[in-house]
Amino acid sequence: MLTEFTQSESLLKHAQAVEACMRACSRKLGDGTPEAEQLWGIVGLLHDFDYDRWPSLEDHPYKGNAILKERGYSDEIRRAIMSHAEYSGVTRDSPMEKALFACDELAGFITACALIKPGKSLAEVDAKSVRKRMKDKAFARKVNRDDIINGAADLGVDLDEHIGFCIEALKPIAKELGLDGSAAKAG
Ligand SMILES: [Fe+2]
What are 180's strand-pairing partners? Predict the structure, then answer.
């Protein structure tokens, strides 16, 4: 489903990154079942699947929502995906919906923080360095700092802790994300 609609390498990585964070959040905040982890993971993986083709505010995530409905994805999944767009008017009510919002921009920001490190690796990133970068307005300007701050607050987690938590969630897939240090060695 994801690769059918998404060609952008960076967007595919973003999808995997948010999936990993959502799976970790599910283990921490969900009901602990493998089904829940799968569900939270799918929501993370697919939340931007329509963005490569239809990036405008009029289309994303509405086009995706219609396609998901056609293909029989549940209301729970579709509602969560709709709720990650501030402008959709769909409120974030469930822990899964709150987690998606709290992980989305942050996953992108952590990735950006890793890419400017000498080794281009996640191992070089910690919550403190991410917080410092958040104050640097010129850095990764497209990432909305307020979304990161409000997302964690609404999820009911401490921001520093949440940042550290997401960094750890991303580490097992560092290689897939190109953040395991091999990119720097390759030149
Ligand atoms: Fe996203």
Answer: 121
- Structure tokens that stand for 178 in this block: 């190109």
Quote the pTM value. 0.96
How remote is the CA of residue 100 from the centroid of ligand 1, in Å?
A: 9
How many residues are given for the chain?
187
Could you tell me the distance, in angstroms and rounded to a whole number, from the CA of residue 105 to the centre of ligand 1? 6
Task: Specify the residue for token string 């921001």.
Answer: 159
DSSP-assigned states of every residue in 87-150: GG-----SHHHHHHHHHHHHHHHHHHHHHTSTT-BGGG--HHHHHHHHH-TTTTTTS-HHHHHH
CA-based nearest residue to 110, from 54, 156, 77, 152: 152
| Ion ligand 1 nearby residues (CB, 5 A) | 48, 104
Note down pLDDT in tens along the chain; length 187 residues: 999 999 999 999 999 999 999 999 999 999 999 999 999 999 999 999 999 999 999 999 999 999 999 999 999 999 999 999 999 999 999 999 999 999 999 999 999 999 999 999 999 999 999 999 999 999 999 999 999 999 999 999 999 999 999 999 999 999 999 999 998 876 5
